[in-house]
Amino acid sequence: MTDERMTDTTATPMTSAATAPAASPNPRTMVLELEDVHTFYGNIEAIKGISLEVAAGEIVTLIGSNGAGKTTTLRTISGTHRPRTGVVRLNGQEIQSLPAHELVSHGLAHAPEGRRVFSRMTVFENLQMGAFSRPKEPMDADVTRVFDLFPRLRERRSQKAGTLSGGEQQMLAIGRALMARPTVLLLDEPSMGLSPILTEQIFTIITDINAQGTTVLLVEQNALMALNVAHRGYVLQTGKILLADTAANLAANEQVRQAYLGEI
Ligand code: ATP
Hints:
This protein has ten helices and ten strands. By secondary structure, it is an alpha/beta fold.
């Protein structure tokens, strides 16, 4: 690593002054912490000792090539895949042994890649499903908030989710996750398969969601867009964190530009 702005996190914890994100709000309150997490699929070690932090109010992005372990990291946090060793903390509480559905009521929501909406249910019914963790509370304000963020969903409120376009399904997946009123939102490839215009819109909405108080951990193939909206980022490579820095520094880094931002 020749660029001295870059931080090799295999050696340096993220709390050092060198890696503190100047632009991040409230960087001292960590809502999400991973400590030396190892996650396997059978004998394949997909995550090889990842440690990372996300502070309250931040947008943090994980970027890296196909198979680097970005999705597995999110799945490990949200309880859909358990780490073999290591610690995951949400608001200071260890959660690596808690079931996924319980984590939703602790303020963690996961909008997985591939959309995964309930295709035979309407848009509205999908949103209702997102609020399953608090069935007795009124959800009108949450539905209004989602429809304000995604006016296309309001127009298609009674339409079956399976008949929506890819971009609309993507919006619905995010909207459904928001129905749980998460304090931390895990977003996996929200721009996957979207047109450039819709991609722009989705990233604007991610910024809006964050401005409304939700902390976001964002996995993206579109590293340039992700670094544009994020406060900080981590670069993953074959299950390890290669680099960690402010998003601005990562976007300016020559190695990152060549490897992930499509520059030769
Ligand atoms: P992509 O952008 O392609 O989704 P990624 O960075 O999200 O990549 P992961 O999907 O987390 O990477 O995959 C990390 C590693 O784990 C890869 O080597 C992948 O082949 C492997 N892997 C992922 N899912 C499984 C699975 N269900 N069974 C076995 N290996 C898996």
